[in-house]
Amino acid sequence: MDTQVFEQYESEVRSYCRHFPTVFTKAKGANFYDEDGRKYIDFFCGAGAVNYGHNNPEIKQKLIEYLESDGVMHALDMYTVPKREFIEIFEEKVLKPRGLNYKIQFPGPTGTNANEAALKLARKVKGRRNVFALMGAFHGMTLGSLALTTDKASRRGAGVPLENVTFIPAPYMFPELDTVRYMQRLISDDHSGVEKPAALFIETIQAEGGIRVFDEQWLRDVRAFCDKNDILLVVDDVQVGCCRSGTFFSFERAGIVPDMVTMSKSIGGYGLPLAITLFKPELDVWSPGEHNGTFRGNQLAFVAAKGGIEYMLSHQVEEQVKEKGEWIRSFIESEILPLDPRLEMRGLGMIWGIEFENIPVKGFADRVIERCFAGGLIIEGAGRKNSVVKLMPPLVISREDLMEGLAVIRDSVKAELAAL
Ligand SMILES: Cc1ncc(COP(=O)(O)O)c(C=O)c1O
Fold first, then answer.
1. Atom of ligand 1 nearest to the CA of 115
2. How far does residue 110's CA lie from ligand 1's centre (Å)?
3. Pairing of strands 276-279, 103-105
4. Which portions of the chain are predicted below pLDDT 70?
């Protein structure tokens, strides 16, 4: 396996490739193939970017047809047919059936771009600088989003102070603390030293934070808190949107309507770069061009995004997630947790985490991940000290691949425990 050119010329900043030191050639469905012809099962799913599977054949066909027709490939934010068709299907088949009324902004194509737009707009609408975010949050790597992100290693890279954010303990950190009352006190107490925020940014499931699923009642209480205090509620659905949690938007289970929603990753349908920032129409106070950019709304990604929604609907992906999520949950519960009483599990839909923080060995989860890779499974870590193994297969994975991948995890955990 020749990885020399990467090691010699590519920056030290490269990361995932260090966990998966091979050269990939092909990907199909829930499988990757490398230069040696070795097949892998993918439980990483491009960090949530290929929910509908690698090279999904139905979406691929639409892309091929578009390419062969010499459709426009780049148009800044000019009006094009793919953009019109994406907006139409998103409006008719995603927003309206859920009773949601949002304007759509196309920022740059990544998750952090969607959050930067939401951050700027929230501050502009409310005329306040401060923003609340939760400890354990991950919102992206550019300076605004990074200021909302808590992990030390990422923040260290900023090189400048990351300001104007107040971090609130996430509800799982101090179960005895009522975090909503705490936030209320922060803004009501004239001796709290905390400025009232323009917005509260949350993930309904902290993914990078270690697969922390927030309680539905807590989400509703947060919504009520924001309403009462004239604070915008922004849900970052970049990673757990697009059916990952069992419904298209992850907040649907709580019956809440955020003021803004950010999405990227699988909204691009085929692993293509696309992001959207959704907000209630009355929040649309942008002036033309005030948040500009050359790559806002990739045309091929619009084609794939429409294809992704069509696929999601015609293959009942939300239903598939509920069924397969249950297979994952019951496998972890019956085959992995019994291996050691110190193991824990958390998750919802098709995002699950196995927590190893109580195994007193540094990097235990990393060792499991390494062993999984040797066993033909691509899987990543998350959480404090990367102590969680995160299971996030493509939503369309077959039962056979899913069970095979789960068995690799079980056997890897067993082997690492035996090596203690
Ligand atoms: C919840 C959440 N928000 C934002 C981002 C940033 O997305 P991107 O890496 O596309 O900038 C991520 C990336 O993992 C994420 O998980």
1. 4
2. 7
3. antiparallel
4. none
